[in-house]
Structures are given as structure tokens and as C-alpha cells.
Amino acid sequence: MRARTVDPVMVHRRAAEFTTRSIKASTKAHGIRLAISMVDLTTLEGSDTPEKVRSLCDRGLRPLPRELDPPIPPVAAVCVYPSMVRTAKERLRDTPIKVASVATAFPSGQAPLETRLAEVAAAVDAGADEIDMVINRGAFLSGRYDLVQSEIAAIKRACGPAHLKIILETGELGTLDQVRLASDLAIEAATSAPATDSGIDDGEIFIKTSTGKISPAATMSVVLVMLEAIRDHFGSTGVRIGMKPAGGIRTSKSALHHLVMVKETLGADWLRPSLFRFGASSLLDDLGRQLLRIENARYSGTGDVPGS
Questions:
Q1: CA gap 162, 170 in Å, rounded
Q2: Residue 97: what pLDDT?
Q3: Superfamily covering domain 8-296
Q4: Which single residue of 35, 98, 121, 251 has CA 20 to 30 Å from 113?
Q5: What residues have CB less than 8 Å from 225, skipping those under 6 apart?
Q6: pLDDT band at residue 298 under the 50/70/90 scheme
Q7: Burial code of 205-236, b = ≥16 C-beta within 10 A, e = fewer?
Q8: Which residues belong to the active site?
Q9: To the nearest whole percent, how much of the chain has pLDDT over 90?
Q10: Residue 266 has what DSSP assignment?
């Protein structure tokens, strides 16, 4: 694959422009509701318990303790460790919320491939609708691109019917050129391993910035480079790849800036949970607070937002 060169000055300038857009209050309220529907509500701690996961699922179904008009949508997914997939699946049965699971020795990715594949299979068997994998950054940074791609393809096949999100861990990649190369390699590898003979469906594959464990994570410039890789792939194949920025997006203002960037880079077709997600834990708190402020013309009080 021919590596594409990224002009960092132009990327940073273009990314900054998306933060200057003026958004009307009515449009902002719609955008916040849309952002809520795109959240992958996440808990990935060693202290996670079944009760904590069930509570997270309940919050995903009802992001605010009281209804507004129009109603607040549920989040897109709840993301947990493989050992908690069954708990989340049981709690979310007969709801529209997907169950996502990190796998492949998250967050390091440093385990034998057989172990990583077994972890994916276990998560899918437990009911995971989506798998968030991490690429082998050691192989990527040492130039072993064929190995990186062969592992991604094997993991994609192991997902079976589950959708795959490929975490690049951009904070470890060093440059925007490397981010673009990793994006292109990941998309090419995953789309070469369809689960069925009918090929790859729109949104069956996502590329994702970060595990949330490394800083910097989802900067606007990094996300823009990844969106451009998705745009170019769509232009050459007609297949829509999803995007998930994760790590560091904590405010509704930042979420809205990302939605503007997605619309202007990829088009309105990507403004749906099946093609765009936010990996977040605390973002939902601010989305709720800001929506209540718009609806009530005041900031929310303690207890108005579950996480506050």
C-alpha cells in the first residue's frame, strides 16, 4: 500500500475551523440529542462489578431521570470487558442498545494471537454485538505491516456476525502520517475478511482513535485524518466505514464540533449511530446538563443528571 503524506499545518488549520461554527439553540438541542444516541457508554476498570454494569445499562436506557419533549434517545451501546458481556446482554435484552466488548488483550494488544482470537470468540459467544479490538502497535511501529493486517483480518473473521471497531491507539503512533497509514491498513485488512459472501455492510467496520488509556487521544486533527481515510475508501469502493473517536471528548461543545467535522468531511449520511460513535464515560453527563439548560433556560441542579 502506498503511504499517503499528510500536511500537518493544513490539517491543524482545517480542524480548528470546525470549532468556529456558530450553531443556533434549536440546532444545538438537536445535535446534543444526536450525540447522546451515538455514545458508547463505557466502563473498563478492574473494579467493575455486575451491579455497576447493570447500573450503567440502566443509565444508557434513560440518560436523564425525567423525560423531555421530544424524548431523550438511549445511547448506542454499552461497552464492557468480556467477562461482563453476559450481564449487560441480560440487562439490555429487548432494547435497542448494543453490547460492545473490548478484546484482543485490551489495552496493550500484547498477547499471542491465539489468545486474542479466543477472547474475541468468548465475547461473541456471550452475546457481544460489537468487538473493540486493539492493533498490534509494536508490529506497526517496527514496519511489520503485513503482520498487522493479517491479525486484523483474522480477528475480523473471528467476530462472525459482530461488528468490529479497530483501535489504532493514535497517541502511540507519533505522526499524522502514521495515523493515516494505520487507518488505511486497518480498513483494507478488515474489508478483505467479510463475515459473509455478500461482502461488507455499511458500519460493519469502524476505525477508532484510542483505548482511552493513553494521552493524547482523540484530538480534532487526528480524527480529521481518519475521517479523510474513510472518505477516500468510500470514494473508491462505495463502502461506508464507521468512525469512533474515544478519549478526551468530555463536553457537549466538543461533541458538536466533531459532528460538524463529520458532516463537512463525510456528509450527512454518517450522522447516525450505525456510522459514528463517541467512546465516552463522562461525556453523557455534560450532554445531559447542556440539554437541560437549553430546555429550561437554566443549568441543571444536583441530581438532574445521573452522573453529576
A1: 24
A2: 98
A3: Aldolase class I (3.20.20.70)
A4: 98
A5: 6, 11, 176, 179, 180, 183
A6: low
A7: bbbbbbbbeeeebbbbbbbbbbbbbbbebbee
A8: 132, 208, 244
A9: 81
A10: H
Q: Where are the chain's structural domains?
A: 8-296
Mean pLDDT of 179-186: 98
Coil vs helix vs strand at 66:
coil
Q: Which residues contact 134 (CB under 8 A, 6 or more apart)?
A: 102, 104, 105, 106, 107, 108, 109, 167, 169, 211
- 181 close to 4: Cβ distance less than 8 angstroms: yes
Per-residue pLDDT reduced to its tens digit, 195-248? 776 688 889 999 999 998 888 888 999 999 999 999 999 999 999 999 999 988
SS3 163: strand
Tell me if 35 sits within 8 A of 255, measured CB to CB.
Answer: yes
Confidence at 304, pLDDT banded by 50, 70, 90? low
Question: Is the pLDDT at 194 greater than 80, yes or no?
Answer: no
> What is the CB-side half-sphere exposure of residue 89 using CA atoms within 13 A?
16
C-alpha 206/C-alpha 31 separation (Å) is: 21
Whole-angstrom Cα distance, residue 119 to residue 33?
Answer: 34
Can you say whether the dihedral through the CA atoms of 258, 45, 98, 55 is positive or negative?
negative
* Cα 170 versus chain centre, distance: 13
Cell numbers describing residue 36: 447522546
Q: Residue 107: is the preceding peptide bond cis (ω within 30°)?
A: yes
Return the amino acid letter for 233: H
